[in-house]
Input
Amino acid sequence: METLITNKFKVQSIRNITPTTYVVRMDRKGMKFSPGQNLNLGLPGDTEKRDYSIYSCLHDDFLEILVKEVEDGLVSRQLKRVKPGEALEVDGPFGFFTIKDEYLHSKKFIFIASGTGIAPFHSISRSHPGINYTLLHGIRYLDETYDKQDYPPDRYISCVSKEEGGSFRGRVTDFIRQNPAEKDGIYYLCGNVNMIYDVFDILKEQGVPSENLHAEVYF
Ligand SMILES: Cc1cc2nc3c(=O)[nH]c(=O)nc-3n(C[C@H](O)[C@H](O)[C@H](O)COP(=O)(O)OP(=O)(O)OC[C@H]3O[C@@H](n4cnc5c(N)ncnc54)[C@H](O)[C@@H]3O)c2cc1C
Output
């Protein structure tokens, strides 16, 4: 399933989605991955590397990552300045935040993301368009509904904490308290550690068994 490719990957484009969030598209060079896995990358020759979930899907002939430019961050700001044609040093793919093939078409999935934590779910849902899922996306502002047109409208629920106009006004934790969990669902949580801890606690209280909970912490 995994092939380790350590190499330079040419950047094809940088697409700005918001003033601080962008998608880096690179050559794929035949890399095999499982949707949900991540890459470790940075500038060539630089020892500072960071992990980024793969945003593109299995049938794309390129690789993409979705990056939030962190104020005072190092790599997330370096990557934004890379020009098409330049190379990045990429290791991977890594990680086990993936779905077993035998569950893909037999289970209901609830994907819960904060911010760019939506990236692995973009890869998973577009790689396997037939799967049964609901995606809860916790964001602060409406412009953070990154590429929401890529999800069927009845599957994507934005939980927007600081303005009106999303699917739900409030945090994902508020949404889950008001819309109790599907106990047989398989839950995948990704993003900020505080969101993940809080959602874990609520889901456990609501009777979701721990074996149905999976998490990927970004920071
Ligand atoms: C498995 C994994 C997958 C990841 N996938 C992604 C991804 O798909 N997209 C993505 O944007 N990031 C992702 N991250 C986070 C990423 O690896 C970096 O931590 C992030 O880009 C900041 O790096 P930096 O060098 O710019 O900041 P640094 O100089 O390393 O750190 C600056 C500070 O920013 C904090 N920070 C990190 N991320 C955020 C954030 N999103 N918002 C606010 N503060 C933050 C850190 O805790 C740190 O205190 C992932 C992390 C992991 C562990």
The chain has two domains: 7-94, 101-217.
